[in-house]
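Exercise 7.
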Amino acid sequence: MVFRKPPDGGWGWVIVVVSFFTQFLCYGSPLAVGVLYLEWLDAFGEGKGKTAWVGSLANGIGLLASPVCSICVSSFGARPVAIFSGFMVAGGLMMSSFAPNIYFLYISYGIVVGLGCGLLYTATVTITCHYFDKRRGLALGLISTGSSVGLFIYAALQRELIDLYGLDGCLLIVGALSLNILACGSLMRPLESSDSPPPEKTCVDKVPDQYFVYHEKEKTVEENISILEKGYIDEKCANNMPDYKQDSILNKNVLSSINVNEKDTYKKKVVEQTNFCKQLAKRKWQLYLNYWEETVVLFKNKVFSALFVAILLFDIGGFPPSLLMEDVARSANINEDDYHMPLISIIGIMTAVGKLTLGILADFKWVNTLYLYVTTLLMTGLALFAIPFAKSYLTLAVLSGILGFLTGNWSIFPYVTTKTVGIEKLTHAYGILMFFAGLGNSLGPPIVGWFYDWTQEYDTAFYFSGFCVLLGGFLLLLAALPCWNACTNQSSKLPPNTYSYKVASSA
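Solution. The predicted structure, written as tokens, is:
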């Protein structure tokens, strides 16, 4: 598939709008699962660590499957994947309303909904990067605010629906709303070049037609020798026979020649089809080897290697507040009458502000997006260390706003990845990084829940979370600094908008 130059506008703005609403509809409930988390604790009576697996799977399984999601988007395109994933998200939410126990929710809400969200996220990010280049930071910031606005609205919406229709009715209604993803996905028109020359055929495409329909062709040397020897033996036997026997044998040979030719034709077809299958298998194996070779090349870059460690530690420590903040307030014996707004809603709206602000900053040439991302990691770690000292709704609300704003660094993460590996390797590299992000999302909330079940307080859990995020930030900073210094002298040779730690420059 040959892509035109990114238009940085036009239909790209339609892509931004539908991608915004796609993330709004698919991530609204999973990100606001903290409201459902309290209901599931009361309904099933399980521990906090075990119950937290539902929300962590919903937010992590799609990222864990990012390599598979990337392959699906690359193979089938963003539009078919988005439409199919819309059915998955809606069906998973509706199935969750009939959950008899917490283990059923692991599958219906955790795996089905989570995998659908992962496919939708990969599809929206990939197609947006295809449509935008100079304004890519702004475009990614806009579409990523969809999930944050969804968190803000769904937190209040799900609480209201639970009060009116109960937990089961809430999930049914939210699942029905998710069907609007199908309409959004239908508008994700791929950016293809209609007037470009067709791509050169691969080795399998160049296989001649004789591998499918038989055509007469020249015999090999071995085949010719075999035919000559066979003819010589037949001739010798015929000379030793009487004339009437020779005539009889000749008639039989004429009658049987048709069957012999048919058998030979069938055998040749089998051989030729076997050769075709061998070439096809060889091509698939070569693609597999190329994938792992590209992966090795990516990990040879220190910044990329540190980036996957940082995203893993960031999601282990930075994701639990969005899921558990409401329970943190309840554990601190804060009166619900003091709630002017759900803490999850504060996280959601400030995440939207952070994504948009950081996305705009990433488009300025004087802003180094890698250092900007590292700064958000370090500040997030400090904010997590402050949560155990918050004993009132006001302090928790302020910390929720700070954490929400800093979590908006998701909008610049694809931007940093693109500048690191290039647009041509974005899908491959982003799938690998999202796998580790999903691993962190899946492990973070249960670990915090287990800390609470063990100590009966959240202080130790958030000290651990803050340490993880700070460690990831410092590792990424240390990996980036030497690379910047080593490549300073070569910066003039690189394109103006390409960072010196790009993989292609060090390969």
